[in-house]
Amino acid sequence: MFSRKIATAASVCRHKDLLWVSVWLTILSLGFGYLIVYSQTAAADSTRLSTAAAAKCYGGGDAPATWALVVAINPKCPCTAATVTMLERICAQTKGALHCQVLAYCPEGGDESWTSTRTLRRLGLIPRVAITTDYGGVLARELGLTTSGETILLDREHVIRFHGGITPARGHEGDNLGATTVRELVEEDPTSVTTYPIYGCPLSAP
C-alpha cells in the first residue's frame, strides 16, 4: 500500500514536470515568434519628403561627391548598429564617390549619453561621413524622416533617387535590396528600385 502511494506521488510529480516543461516551451516559442515578427516589421513610410531640405545636405567633405546619402539615426537605438555596418560596406564599395551626412538625433538638453555613443564613434571612423547632432530632431523633421536608419540618396542634380532603409531587418545586417540599390545607383548601374522598407525605432525613442 505504501509503495503504491509512492508510485502515485512520483507519477503526479512527473506529470507536473511535463506540464511545466510544456508551459516553458510555449512561452519560449511565443517569445521567439514575437522577436521574428518584430525584426521583420518595417516602420511606417514617411508621407512627406522635402527635396529642398535634402539638397542642403548635398556634397561636403574635402572634395565634391557625385552622390549624397542622408541618414537619420537614433544613436541609442540598438537597431542602428546594423545600419552603421551596412553604411561601412556601402562607403567601402563606392570608393569615395559618395558623401554621407548623418543626422544624429539628440533631445533638447541631451547629455553625452546621446552625443558620445559607441554608434557615433563607429560612424566617425568611416571616410566621407559627416555627423550633425540634430537637437530635437528638427533637421530630420524638416526632411520628413522619422525612423532611425531612414535614408535619402540624392544624385548630382540634388534629385532624390532612393528613399528607405539599408538593413534586411531590425538590428540585422546583410545583403538587402536597399543597400544594393544605393550602391548600384552610385555606380551608375541601371535600376528601377526607388524605395525599400525601413527597419528601425522611432528617431525620438528614449
Helix content: 40-55%
The helix count comes to 7
Q: Helices and strands, in N-to-C order?
A: HHEHEHHEHEEHE
* Strand neighbour order, sheet with most strands: 3-2-1-4-5-6
Instruction: Return the average pLDDT rounded to an integer.
Output: 80
Termini, distance in Å?
Answer: 64 Å
Q: In the residues, how many domains can be counted?
A: 2
Main sheet specs:
6 strands, mixed
CATH superfamily of the largest domain: Glutaredoxin
> What is the strand tally?
6
- The parts where pLDDT drops under 50 for at least 5 residues are 28-44, 59-63
Going by helix content, strand content and strand pairing, the class is alpha/beta
Rg result: 23 Å
User: Which CATH architecture of the largest domain?
Assistant: 3-Layer(aba) Sandwich
Give the CA-based shape. Answer: globular
CATH topology of the largest domain: Glutaredoxin
Explain the layout of strands and helices.
Blueprint: H1 2-39, H2 51-55, E1 67-73, H3 80-94, E2 98-106, H4 112-115, H5 118-124, E3 129-135, H6 138-143, E4 150-154, E5 160-164, H7 177-186, E6 195-196
Parallel strand pairs: 1-2, 2-3, 5-6
Antiparallel strand pairs: 1-4, 4-5
Helix pairs in contact: 3-7
Descriptive report:
This protein has 206 residues and is an alpha/beta fold. The chain folds into 2 domains: 1-39; 51-196, 3-Layer(aba) Sandwich (Glutaredoxin). 41% of the residues lie in helices and 17% in strands. A 6-stranded mixed β-sheet has the order 3-2-1-4-5-6. The longest helix is centred in the N-terminal third of the chain and has 38 residues, at 2-39. The termini are far apart.
